[in-house]
Every structure is written in C-alpha cells, then in structure tokens.
C-alpha cells in the first residue's frame, strides 16, 4: 500500500547540481532515522539510463545531471478504506453515504450534544448523540461549522489541483521526476503510479463543489510543462484520465493575521462541543488525528483509559505481511475454474493479479483470492488492469462498498487510472453489486447513470471537449 519511490530532479547547470545536492544532503541530515534512503547525484549518462525518456537537452540549455531523493508513495483509496475498516475492527461505528443535516444542541448549556443524520441510500433520517463532535470534512468543513454558528469566520481557502494520467512508457517503473521550479515558478512532477504515469499539478484558487472538473487549459499546462523535460512527444491523445481535487488550505480563525494561509493543519473549537480539524495532508494524517482527539478530550472533559495507541498501529491486513506475500497467492490459488468438454481446467493466479491483490489488501488478499477461485469471479474487470471481479464482491461484503462509484473511485483507482476502461467495466461491476445487495433493475439503471455522470467529470482523450 505504501512504498519508497526515488524521485529525480534534472539539473541544467552546475549551480543547480550543487544547490539541489546540498539541499538534499541537509534533508538527509534532518530526516535522521526516519530517512528512507540517502539522496545522491547521477551523471548525464546514468540519469538517462535510469529515466530513458528524460531529455538530454532543454530549449536553451543542456542537461548536466540529476539529483535523486526518496519519498513515500501510497495508494490513497486503499489507505483510506483501510483506516475506516481498522477503526471498525477496534469498535467504531462506521457509516457510508451518511450526511449530517443539522446539530442537536442543549440550549441550556449552549453545547452540541449530537447530530441529525440522513442515510443517503435509504433516505432514513435519525439522531445520534455524543459527548462531542469532531468536524473533519475537508474542504466542506465551513458548511458544517455554519450549522452550529451561522456567522462563523471561514477557515477554508480552496485550491484546485489537477492531475493527468498517461501510459506507463512515459516514466520508468521505479523512478519519478520532479521539477521544484519550472520557468514560470511552479512545481511539476511525473511519477509511476499503479502501472501508469501520473503527472501534475496545478495550484489555483477555486470554488468548492462536490465534483470538481479539470479545465482543458489546466490539462494542457501540465502536458506542456512535462514536455520540456522529456525526449518523447507528449500527446493530448495519450491522456487516459484527468481529474481535479480540492486542497483545503486553512486559516486559523483565531489568528490575528487572517491573511496567512497554511498547508499545515488547524484545530479549533468555534462552538462548545464541536472541534474542527482541517488543512494538512496525507503525510501527517496520523498526527492530525491525534491532535484532533487531544482537543476533543480537553473540550469534552473526557477521561481516556489509555494514551494514544496509533503510533505503531498496523492497519487491517498489515500484520504479518511481507513483500513476498504475493507468491502465496500464485502458488495456492487459481483465479477461477473453467469447464472445457466436461473437464474442470484451473486458470492460474498470474503474478500481476497476485501482486495487485497483495499490495491492495495485505494479508486479507487471500480472502479475495478465495472468492475468485470458489465463486467464478476471477475474470479481470478491464483489459490491461489487474482488478478482479472478486474484488467487487469482497468490497461489498467487507468494505462498505454501496455503489458503483464507491468501487471504481474509492475502493480501487480504476476511474482515476483510465476513465474509459472504468466506463466499460461498469455493467459487470453493477451486476456483481446487484447480486450482493439485492438491487432490482431500477436501482441498477440508476447506479449506471450516476456512475456515468461521475466519470463525465474526468477528461480522458476520448471524452475531452476540444476547443
């Protein structure tokens, strides 16, 4: 789910070589025991061998060499659902497609004591009570805060980040490219990601919407920016998927200087009983949660029985996992059993599928493999991708997967990897979910429509609107 990835920065003059090399060595020193691997310099020839599509010449200068440092890369959809399932395993009540519509207040004490919640699948509305509510709604946190106090000062300064996905040949399998400062002062990167190449990003002011869409000029900016550093022609027709996300850049409402915008997280309490945490990033998610819980303990005058337990906690499926775990799947399972002429012929669990299952589900991958083998759900959902039909059934049974969009975007990353492949896989995904959740034909039709509307917000080369 998470691994170290070397990232290469091209240097076009010797000053850049020295400048970036010294900066990365300082980075190594500060990281101390948390350092993944030591950074280093590579010559021009070594750099091109490591990154074959790297351009030796820029528009007005020649490549001198590169510096490489290591960063962490993760599968965010799998990490996110892993956190929810780990919490459920520890006793948390986890709801999916549940929306807070209002707060319950003790008017005498002027304190929030719970929330009214709507199940957006069944439409049922119910009340739940709590000693304290934590608002961790990302870019939507201000709308939650206004439920408690209408005249609250906004915290969120939303920023749009656009990414594009390209075929795997744009980048090597185990090396990324990052340019800390392009000619117009922006950061550009290109990384191998789940068998494809992801490139980005933009950083623009935006308005908050549930389904943000990338603009064609933003997509073209990224393609133009990476083309300055590649020897291969960067084509708009190669874009498999493009999407926009919203960064919840935050200001502290209690700070005197309201102009300061932070990429760090902010914790505050605008109304008694409501603790808000926003801002931050995936890298610091655990410490963010700890800060939010500590604030909740203080606000609610709670008495925890233990200290923080998450410092060294492994997520569900992580205990006992080893990099060689995929070999167990290849040796002990078949993807499915076919019948030919009255004979049962097993179809092997190939290495690509086994590695995918192992990295996505950890030691729980054997449960997915068992479903594939015993329930004839071992076919691939989309040509060229390792996702199996069995994953849809498993996610419906064990990971709160309640819709087609849940699977293509929030349990797997198929929609983000290849929009058109996700579109083609929808009928089979919905068929499996229908069997798991007892959907009638009307519900299946609605699911297909909702999923197609969702995919229309992505801009692949086939569904893009060209000027």
Automatic annotation (TrEMBL):
InterPro entries: DAO_C, DAO_C_sf, FAD-dep_OxRdtase, FAD/NAD-bd_sf, G3P_DH_FAD-dep. It is an enzyme of class 1 (oxidoreductase). PANTHER family: GLYCEROL-3-PHOSPHATE DEHYDROGENASE, GLYCEROL-3-PHOSPHATE DEHYDROGENASE, MITOCHONDRIAL. The lineage of its organism: Eukaryota, Viridiplantae, Streptophyta, Embryophyta, Tracheophyta. It is found in: Mitochondrion. It comes from Rhizophora mucronata. One of its GO terms (molecular function) is glycerol-3-phosphate dehydrogenase (quinone) activity. GO terms for biological process: glycerol-3-phosphate metabolic process. Pathway: Polyol metabolism; glycerol degradation via glycerol kinase pathway; glycerone phosphate from sn-glycerol 3-phosphate (anaerobic route): step 1/1. This is glycerol-3-phosphate dehydrogenase. GO terms for cellular component: mitochondrion. Its cofactor is FAD. Residues 40-286 form the FAD dependent oxidoreductase domain. Its EC number is 1.1.5.3. The keyword Oxidoreductase applies. It holds the Pfam family DAO. The keyword Transcription does not apply. Belongs to the FAD-dependent glycerol-3-phosphate dehydrogenase family. Residues 308-443 form the Alpha-glycerophosphate oxidase C-terminal domain. Keywords: FAD, Flavoprotein, Mitochondrion, Oxidoreductase, Transit peptide. It comes from the Eukaryota.
């Amino acid at each position: 789910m998470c691994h170290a990835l070397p990232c290469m920065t091209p240097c076009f003059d010797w000053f850049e070589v020295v400048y970036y090399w010294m900066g990365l060595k300082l980075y190594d020193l500060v990281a101390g025991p948390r350092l993944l691997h030591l950074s280093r310099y590579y010559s021009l020839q070594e750099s091109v061998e490591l990154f074959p599509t790297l351009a030796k010449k820029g528009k007005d200068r020649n490549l001198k060499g590169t510096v490489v440092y290591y960063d962490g890369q993760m599968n965010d959809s799998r990490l996110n659902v892993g956190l929810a399932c780990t919490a459920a395993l520890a006793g948390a009540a986890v709801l999916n497609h549940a929306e807070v519509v209002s707060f319950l207040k003790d008017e005498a004490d002027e304190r929030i004591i719970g929330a009214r919640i709507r199940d957006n699948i069944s439409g049922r509305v119910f009340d739940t009570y709590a000693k304290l509510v934590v608002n961790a709604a990302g870019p939507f946190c201000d709308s939650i805060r206004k439920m408690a106090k209408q005249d609250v000062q906004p915290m969120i300064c939303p920023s749009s980040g656009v990414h594009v996905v390209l075929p795997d040949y744009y980048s090597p399998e185990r090396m990324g490219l990052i340019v800390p400062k392009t000619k117009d002062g922006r950061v550009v990167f290109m990384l191998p990601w789940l068998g494809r190449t992801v490139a980005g990003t933009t950083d623009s002011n935006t308005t908050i919407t549930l389904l943000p869409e990338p603009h064609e000029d933003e997509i073209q900016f990224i393609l133009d920016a990476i083309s300055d550093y590649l020897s291969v022609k960067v084509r708009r027709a190669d874009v498999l998927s493009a999407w926009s996300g919203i960064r919840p850049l935050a200001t502290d409402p209690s700070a005197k200087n309201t102009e300061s915008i932070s990429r760090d997280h902010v914790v505050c309490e605008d109304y008694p009983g409501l603790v808000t945490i926003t801002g931050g990033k995936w890298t610091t998610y655990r410490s963010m949660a700890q800060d939010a819980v500590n604030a909740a303990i203080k606000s609610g005058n709670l008495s925890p029985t233990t200290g923080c337990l998450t410092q060294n906690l492994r997520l569900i499926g992580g205990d006992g996992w080893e990099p060689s775990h995929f070999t167990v799947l290849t040796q002990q399972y078949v993807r499915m059993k076919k019948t030919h002429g009255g004979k049962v012929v097993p179809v092997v669990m190939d290495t690509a599928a086994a590695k995918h299952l192992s990295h996505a589900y950890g030691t729980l991958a054997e449960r997915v493999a068992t479903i594939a083998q015993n329930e004839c759900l071992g076919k691939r959902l989309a040509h060229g991708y390792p996702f199996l039909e069995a994953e849809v059934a498993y996610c419906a049974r064990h990971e709160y997967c309640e819709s087609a969009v849940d699977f293509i975007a929030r349990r797997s990353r198929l929609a983000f990897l290849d929009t058109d492949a996700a579109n083609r896989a929808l009928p089979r995904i919905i068929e499996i979910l229908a069997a798991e959740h007892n959907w009638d034909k009307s519900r299946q039709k609605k699911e297909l429509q909702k999923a197609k509307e969702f995919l229309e917000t992505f801009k692949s080369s086939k569904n893009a609107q060209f000027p």
